[in-house]
Design brief:
Elements (H helix, E strand, L loop, with lengths): L4 E5 L12 H13 L4 E4 L11 H15 L5 E4 L5 H14 L3 E5 L8 H15 L3 E5 L1 H4 L5 H7 L5 E6 L4 H10 L4 E4 L5 H6 L4 E3 L7 H13 L3 H19 L4 H11 L16 H23 L2
Parallel strand pairs: 1-2, 1-8, 2-3, 3-4, 4-5, 5-6, 6-7, 7-8
Helix pairs in contact: 1-2, 2-3, 3-4, 4-6, 9-10, 10-12, 11-12
Amino acid sequence: MTLEGIYTPVVTPLHDDFSVDYDALADVVDHLVASGVHGLISGGSTGENYTQTVEERLEIARFTQDRLKGRLPLFVGTGMMRTEDSLAMAAGAREMGADGILHGTPPYSVPTEHENALNTLAVDRAADLPMILYNYPGRMGVNMGEEFLDRVGRSRNVIGIKESSGDINRVHLLARDYPHIQLSCGMDDQALEFFAWGARSWICAGSNFLPEEHVFLYETCVVQGDFAKGRRIMSAMMPLMRVLEQGGKFIQCVKHGTTFMGHPTGTVRPPLRPLNKDDKRQLEQVIRTLKRTISDIKAEN
């Protein structure tokens, strides 16, 4: 499987009582398909997976798969603290006919590279689907290093890696030494650098509410190879990246952005709390400016 384009880790719309709003989720899925993204991910951290049971995550993934009706590929997140839960997610993804899985290091346990590889390969066997690795040491505590990559990279199912370390040297390492593992951008403010080093996909939460703008950057850099224009687009997007990452309000910003753009997704589950009025106003202004600037760039064609 070739990883090409924008893959959206879908938010989980909620009612005020924190139950899943499936009508709103259906609207989000349909909107993303219509907006031209290239694939969806269910059960990522953007979907608040850390607040959900295995059963709830699988229910959300099955609903998303049914709503897609084959219009886009669907990857299911399998990363969890307990291996047994990751195996259950992997088996569930296989049974529902998902196109692949996104698997990260179990958080908090801080496994060795050998332990992490064995855990990943167990999940691989349970799913027997294309797997995107998810390297996010800031959340998981460890890197998927060379010992890990050498071992898991032998599996025919390991097709790519979402690299979210923020370390540009990791991009160089993966592009040069592991070309058989497709490189996918997982660090939003480095998308331009990833594309320059050969990545052809970007797994980005911001595409929940600005899908067309994210697709535009991908098409400009990857399809057209126009990095001069790409730098202008990326420059317009950088204020959004800063707002999303400030003060631990990433999920809240993504959900408010989606709501602001006409697709309400409701509140967030505890321990998080919704944005206050000032934060909402700041995000909305950044979105307006970004859309206006990128619209002007598009109009030059």
